[in-house]
Amino acid sequence: MNYISIKNGESIAVNSVPVLNYQEFYNVFDLLKDHENHCINYFAVNEADTIRLWAMIANDREHTIYVFSSNVAHNSKLKSLTPKYPGMHVYEREIAEVFHLQFEESEWDKPLRFPFNRNNKEQTIEKYPFYSIESHELHEVGVGPIHAGIIEPGHFRFICNGEKVLHLEIQLGYQHRGVESLMIQNQNITYQTKLAESISGDTVIGNTLAFANLIESLNGKSMSTSVEIERAIALELERIAIHTGDLSALCTDVAYQFGTVVFQDLRTIIINTFLQWCGNRFARKLIHPQMNKYPLTQELKEKILNNLAEYESRFNEMAQLMFNIPSVLARFENVGVVTTQQALDMMFVGMAARTSGVERDIRKSHPHGFYQHTAIDPVVLKNGDVKARAQLRYFEIVASLKYIKEWLQLHSSSEKIAHSNNKLMPNSLCLTLVEGWRGELCHVALTDAKGNIMHYKIKDPSLHNWFALALAVRNNDISDFPICNKSFDLSYCGFDL
Amino acid sequence: MLDGLKAFFHHGKRFIPDPTKVSLPESFTGLPKFISTPCLQDCSLCKNVCPTRAITTEPLRLALDSCIFCLECQDACPEHKIRFTNNYKMGTNQYERLQIAEGKENLVCVNPALVRNEIVRLLGRSLKLRLVSAGSCNGCELELNAAGNVNFDMGRYGIEFVASPRHADGLVITGPITENSLASVKLTYEAIPSPNVVILVGACALSGGVFKESLALRREILSELKPDLLVPGCPPHPLTFINAILDLIKTKV
Fold it and tell me: What SS3 class is residue B119?
């Protein structure tokens, strides 16, 4: 076999993963011809004399993940996968930026995020090679890195014909803090958990859950069903909170002020539920590997149910109102369309995939924890426009409210747990996938002979989905850019790491 | 029409009447204090568990600029000496005041003697701010956005975030200041007219936070900027931010 099949959250010995020559390795990617497969991670690790390439392809129907690898020499020139599978561009750009490797025939071999450990220090963020057009009719518009609001930095370069956008190129990297390197620099699990909380401040539960699942798998400590239910509830609460905030922001961008304030206030109810649960509005501290620091007591369960009841009636009223107002719908419909073919080719994940008719939801395809014992029915919409992305949030909130109420019934009491076994299995690889509100998060760790983490890889759904925004605005008016951007609400810091 | 009115009625009034006096639930982790019980001999559990090395012992000090309010020290202390209260007022204008020592928690406030005269004179009733996110995780941005929302409504005090640095009276920095964002911080600072109030928000901006040890940061610029206000937290609660600003601009000289 050219690959080994594993499940989400499974730890395997590093030497059980096949090592192929690059041509064989390249050929395994033909799995991607079948749309049930998509590449969830592809990265490189420095070894003594070589560079080891690791790839993971997930099969959504079989619920398995294929892992394979290849050893290549430093300074190799490798055949690029991007011409055949354009969605692979992000991975190859990421590798080429740090390692002395070159991907030949890649049509888009540009820097990705200008990390501090890039191989070419001459290449700075100010010198990004933008695509440009020489023309008397067309003009370029540059926006950022600092934007007009309370938002993270990124540069957007448009090529326009009058008001119409022909092309958008998005350049990121401003938020690069070196998270993956810090995961290795300090092996203290508490520190690493705090770092996972700060990968992306709007996906605290998503990232800490992926990290906790990974550590618990690597030291063989699984948690009780009650704790798994609590974690699933937290993940769904985070989904509700951020989706509600996004609906508020979408209302702002179409000048529907009443929707803005009502959704703002509704989001407050949900994040204040986290405040009551663990003392932080974004659920920092709540999840910790091998620990259950904030057990869900009877009193808390009642508080959650009360808050949800208050939220639900007002939310349904507001959402129905919003999606029946012609002036709102006129701004949402057929704006920023991403087609199914584009979503498949560019390997979009999460919301960006599901609004373009591609069912990709880790909770169903690669379930972990309590999701293995419950049925999730992903919301899939076909239109791929701003309206679909707004509606998806509405429907997902309704679904998550239902799940939480069901799960609270199944939850029996849980206790504070504090295992202190920090020993990780040596020479192992572990991979975890979690469906955060934005889409699939993927964490991969490799351990060395002493059981220390020697390589840590984080993938935010935004790595793929920023390109969806670039495609969505083509042939749209440039004035619709803000609403397209808001409809994806992608992460800058999750991309830059 | 009728549905709209019904929703309007159900929405009701949502603003906090007085953001300077409201109290947060007991579960909120705010300003820490030390209880007067003595430490165990040679115990440094709190220091050892702190993920951002905010604690030093002998004498016991907790540096609020590094603190991410994770409660690891509170949970580890066998004498229950450290307690995080639900007090959300933590803004100050001196790094020294962020060093929590036993019995000196009430020093964590704005020192009126150090507030620039023109800040109080010109900006007491209207302060427009420009934010630069310099490697932040977006947590601080979420809370700064919330500070202006329907619940907290800091606009009532004339405090607002504006789109252009040319329209701003001050600069708010979040994040540990990455190498890649350094130019943006400098450009924005230079584009803001005087008195150019500089406000650092969150553990990352104050000390580097969990990213302290990162090789991707360039924090030297902070020594040139001379911050006027320091707002601890990870992320700071909207009430922490609003009250810190009010303390600064409403200072009685």
Answer: helix
Give pLDDT, residue A84.
Answer: 93
Q: Where in chain B are the domains? A: 32-101, 112-249
Report whether pLDDT(A54) > 70. Answer: yes
* Size of chain A in residues: 497
Q: Is the pLDDT of residue A156 over 80?
A: yes
Q: Is A305 on the interface with B (CB under 8 A)?
A: no
- Residue A313 gets the label, from left (phi > 0), alpha (psi -120 to 50) or beta, of alpha
d(CA A303, CA A294): 14
Report chain A residues whose CB lies below 8 A from the CB of B138. 152, 200-202, 491-493
pLDDT averaged over chain A?
93
Our CA-based measurement puts residue B147 at a distance from the nearest CA of chain A, in whole angstroms, of 11
For domain B112-249, which architecture applies? Answer: 3-Layer(aba) Sandwich (3.40)
Q: What is the pTM of this model?
A: 0.94
* Neighbour-count burial of B102, counting CB atoms closer than 10 A to its CB (0-12 exposed, 13-18 middle, 19+ buried): middle
Q: Which residue type sits at A73?
A: A
Residue among A16, A6, A14 nearest A45 (CA):
A14
- Peptide bond just before A426 cis, omega within 30 deg: no
Q: Given this structure, which CATH class describes domain B32-101?
A: alpha beta
C-alpha span between A461 and A490 (Å, rounded): 8
Domain spans of chain A?
A: 4-113, 179-495
The per-type count for chain A, helices as H runs and strands as E runs, is 16, 16
Query: Could you tell me if A44 and A52 are in contact, meaning their C-beta atoms sit under 8 angstroms apart?
Result: yes
Tell me the C-alpha distance between A314 and A334, whole Å: 28
Give me the architecture of the A179-495 domain, per CATH: Orthogonal Bundle (1.10)
Can you read off the two tokens belonging to residue B3?
């549905």
Nearest CB among B8, B137, B214 relative to A200 is that of B137
Please report where in the chains the tokens 């204040």 appear, as a residue: A272
ipTM reported for the complex, 2 dp: 0.93
Across the interface, of B3, B132, B135, the residue whose CB is closest to A321 is B3
Question: In whole angstroms, what is the distance from residue B94 CA to residue B232 CA?
Answer: 12
Nearest residue of B to residue A277, measured between CA atoms? B27
> DSSP character for A296?
-
Per the CB < 8 A criterion, the answer to whether A273 and A307 are in contact is yes
B119-177: pLDDT as tens digits: 888 888 899 999 999 999 999 999 999 999 999 999 999 999 999 999 999 999 999 99
pLDDT at B253 over 70: no
Tens-place pLDDT, residues A210-241: 999 999 999 888 888 899 999 999 999 999 99
